[in-house]
């Protein structure tokens, strides 16, 4: 079943994650327990576990563009070009106005701004040293705007600010624009430059939510009884979304069909999650698509590795899907790559899409001893589990109570 008035499909994927570039490399890392978390040195913070991406930014940008733009913009440009190449779509004078760019973010320009402030402090705060690139770097529509300049698309571009739910919400924005007929191709998903910003680490540290571990690869451990916080990471994943009839007309390869989504707000607290509102978000999705909890085969959870957040999400899932052996399989991706913030929803969905074809569900990583507060049937642990996946839900929840769930179906 679908809540959408037109069938929307995924025809291209471009991505970079701390443990791999491209879907094949990323998927293999998830199936073979390869972590992308390492120890890095941050100004003022010292050594911290983090997820850093390694991709060739000069593949799609020259040195001048890299100097004037943002790290988030660079990640987005790389992912957008890779997605377009993967989908085999061509941007021409005749269709460039029919492409829309919709990118979820938690932050952008923060890395460059922090560096400028530091440089200014070394020059006795002489404002003549302040970069004239600051404004375009920090305005709300960068990095989506950087992508349009790079690709020369003239359709609409938007950044969707939805905290850690932004990856899902960028996809949802693209779906809505396709349904409205505003565009024919949506480049949609999420990006993050978080691990290069010391302010994010400092804030989580003061909050008592920054992960610590003697082995950085084991620092991100959602649901484990010894979890102690978030591993901050960067990354990006952008999709090519099209209406099914357009994709079929050009003989496109189709990864999956998106059949529904739901978003709501906790209206509770800046950082504390609400199991009740998350459950409402799940229930709204099922009601819109006329599906029952038993129809869902897999839920990729948002769980970040914080004691309260992980337990509240499981409580929400239990409210909706029950607590018996026929509940969906549960997995999580952050143990492998840390928390990629605005990119999280989009990247974590990508890691599960190959399961429609290979019949495997990747496990949670670093889940050595399940916290009783997170105990739930069918959490995939230790090794991949076989499963015929027909419907999967991708869940992403963010600060200020931003909840989002996306329902994706095997394409037939």
Number of structural units classed as domains: 2
At the fold tier of CATH, the topology name of the largest domain is Peroxisomal Thiolase, Chain A, domain 1
**Most strands sheet:** 11 strands, mixed
Structural class: alpha/beta
Mean pLDDT, all residues = 95
Percent strand equals 15-25%
The strand count comes to 16
> Looking at the chains present, what oligomeric state does this protein adopt?
single chain
What is the CATH top level name of the largest domain? Alpha Beta
- SSE order: EEHEEHHEHHHEHEHEEHEHEHEHHHEEEE
SSE order and pairing:
Blueprint: E1 8-17, E2 20-21, H1 23-31, E3 37-42, E4 46-51, H2 63-68, H3 71-87, E5 99-105, H4 110-121, H5 134-138, H6 144-151, E6 157-161, H7 166-179, E7 185-192, H8 198-207, E8 232-233, E9 235-243, H9 244-249, E10 256-265, H10 275-289, E11 298-300, H11 307-321, E12 329-331, H12 334-337, H13 344-352, H14 355-358, E13 360-361, E14 385-386, E15 391-398, E16 402-409
Parallel strand pairs: 4-8, 5-6, 5-7, 11-12, 11-15
Antiparallel strand pairs: 1-2, 1-9, 1-10, 3-4, 7-9, 10-16, 13-14, 15-16
Features:
412 residues; alpha/beta; Peroxisomal Thiolase, Chain A, domain 1; 2 domains; globular
């Amino acid at each position: 079943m679908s809540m959408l008035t037109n069938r929307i499909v995924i025809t291209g994927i471009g991505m970079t994650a701390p443990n791999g570039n491209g879907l094949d490399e990323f998927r293999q890392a998830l199936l073979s327990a390869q972590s992308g978390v390492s120890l890095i040195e941050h100004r003022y913070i010292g050594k911290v576990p983090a997820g850093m991406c390694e991709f060739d930014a000069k593949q799609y940008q020259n040195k001048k563009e890299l100097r004037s733009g943002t790290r988030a913009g660079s990640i987005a440009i790389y992912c957008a070009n890779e997605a377009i190449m993967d989908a085999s779509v061509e941007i021409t004078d005749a269709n460039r106005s029919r492409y829309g760019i919709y990118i979820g973010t938690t932050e952008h320009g923060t890395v460059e701004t922090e560096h400028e402030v530091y440089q200014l402090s070394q020059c006795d705060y002489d404002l003549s040293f302040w970069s004239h690139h600051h404004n375009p770097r920090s305005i709300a529509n960068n990095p989506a705007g950087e992508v349009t300049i790079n690709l020369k698309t003239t359709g609409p571009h938007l950044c969707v600010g939805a905290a850690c739910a932004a990856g899902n919400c960028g996809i949802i924005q693209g779906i809505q624009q396709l349904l409205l007929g505003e565009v024919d191709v949506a480049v949609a998903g999420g990006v993050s430059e978080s691990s290069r910003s010391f302010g994010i680490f400092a804030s989580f540290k003061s909050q008592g939510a920054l992960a610590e571990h003697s082995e950085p690869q084991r620092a991100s451990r959602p649901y484990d009884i010894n979890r102690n916080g978030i591993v901050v990471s960067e990354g990006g994943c952008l999709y090519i979304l099209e209406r099914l009839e357009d994709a079929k007309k050009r003989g496109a390869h189709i990864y999956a069909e998106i059949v529904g989504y739901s978003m709501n707000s906790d209206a509770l607290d800046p950082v504390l999650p609400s199991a009740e509102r998350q459950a409402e978000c799940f229930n709204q999705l099922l009601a819109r698509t006329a599906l029952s909890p038993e129809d869902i085969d897999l839920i990729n959870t948002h769980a970040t590795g914080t004691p309260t957040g992980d337990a509240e999400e499981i409580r929400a899932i239990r409210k909706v899907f029950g607590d018996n052996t026929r509940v969906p399989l549960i997995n999580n991706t952050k143990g492998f790559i840390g928390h990629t913030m605005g990119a999280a929803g989009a990247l974590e969905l990508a890691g599960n899409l190959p399961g429609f074809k290979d019949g495997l569900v990747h496990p949670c990583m670093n889940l050595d001893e399940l916290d009783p507060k997170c105990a739930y049937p069918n959490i995939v642990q230790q090794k991949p589990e076989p499963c015929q996946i027909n419907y999967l839900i991708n869940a992403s929840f963010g600060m200020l109570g931003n909840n989002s769930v996306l329902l994706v179906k095997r394409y037939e």
